[in-house]
Amino acid sequence: MPRLSSKALYSFAHLVARRMGSEEAEAHEVADHLMRANLAGHDSHGIGMLPAYVRLLKAGLLVPNQTPETVVDFGALLVLDARRGYGQRMAGEAVRRAIARARETGACVLGLRNSAHIGRVGTYGEMAVAAGMSFTAYVNVADHHYAQAPFACRDARLGTNPFVTALPGPEGPVLLDMATTTVAGGKVRVAYNKGQKLADGILIDDEGHPTNDPAVYIRDHAGALLSFGGHKGSGLAVLCEMMSTALTGGQRAEEPTKEGILNSMLAIVIDLNRIRGDADARAAVASSVAHIKASRVAPGHDAILVPGDPERRAAAKRGAEGVDIDDTSWRDITEAARAVGATDAEIAAAIG
Ligand SMILES: NC(=O)c1ccc[n+]([C@@H]2O[C@H](COP(=O)([O-])OP(=O)(O)OC[C@H]3O[C@@H](n4cnc5c(N)ncnc54)[C@H](O)[C@@H]3O)[C@@H](O)[C@H]2O)c1
Q1: What are the boundaries of each domain within the chain?
Q2: Confidence band (pLDDT; 50, 70, 90) for 155?
Q3: What confidence tier does 242 reach under pLDDT thresholds 50, 70, 90?
Q4: Pocket test for ligand 1, best of 177, 183, 227, 257 (most atoms within 8 A of CB)
Q5: Which residue ranges have their beta carbon within 6 Å of ligand 1?
Q6: Which of 180, 211, 233, 297 is most buried per CB count within 10 Å?
Q7: At 67, phi and psi to the nearest 5?
Q8: How confident is the model at residue 85, as a pLDDT?
């Protein structure tokens, strides 16, 4: 099982993105994103996504070096069509434009539609927070293989439809970044690759019965992930679908897609200096965090964390120690690298 440093993760992902045809700036943005997702503890959204990206590239469903089309540019409203562009760069560019617009108008409502997989959505929340903004995003996933069975559905009907909200906190962003399924789909892939069973409450089989076997979903493309939090999480998934597509014209789950993953996103970016004053907003967030953390720790837990804390902790540990990639994932990842022309010598040089 290889253990990769942050530099190795970056260099390897950069090599593959370049071989996939991305220009330097795009390869950098993709590699930096994937490396940081691994460091944050989300191996589901790190370099383990590269085999899927190579598959999509070869099927013409992911377009390197794409230019997003501006669909709406009206005051605080900005809607861009990514036309299957490489998601990390399409979303990065879109959010940078939304931040610039929010500096002028106080806020920006950003629609980004039809992007190839945008990865760990929290990354864009971190970008906005670093610029003194809050960030809220409703995201859908349109794929030929539905992932999520909404409340009371026996069948999968939606994607894992992530939701994000981020604010500047005392130790870094307070960043809620989550799939609306109990876990992200990529985590089922990681469990399958490691030969692990899933915890209860994550997956149902084709008949709607609970199962702990990730092979049902990954190998057999059957069954469905459950929404988190019963009808409430399911409701958020439904609204992620609608906010990100009904308002932007993005691809809906039920529209016939060719194989491939498309993300659409409706994001709201607010300049804290314009709405209240950056310092006052930050002080209020810090006060809320302190208030929550002053509670006694509940039995069975060892710490009280706010959203974003687990990723910061993981990044500190993994940044120092490196990230273990299981053998099955590493085999798939290196096969994908070779499929786009990376040689074994280049792979060895990239991972040091
Ligand atoms: N692009 C896509 O199509 C897509 C789809 C789904 C998910 N994703 C990504 O998958 C990643 C993983 O999602 P997930 O739902 O499995 O994440 P998760 O369940 O690990 O974490 C969800 C949230 O809970 C917080 N959290 C975790 N443990 C906590 C604790 N003990 N106390 C307080 N807060 C805690 C985390 O900080 C995070 O904000 C996310 O980055 C998401 O953006 C992307």
Answers
A1: 3-276
A2: very high
A3: very high
A4: 177
A5: 42, 44-45, 117-122, 141, 160, 162, 175-179, 183-184, 187, 263, 305-308, 310-311
A6: 180
A7: -110, 125
A8: 98
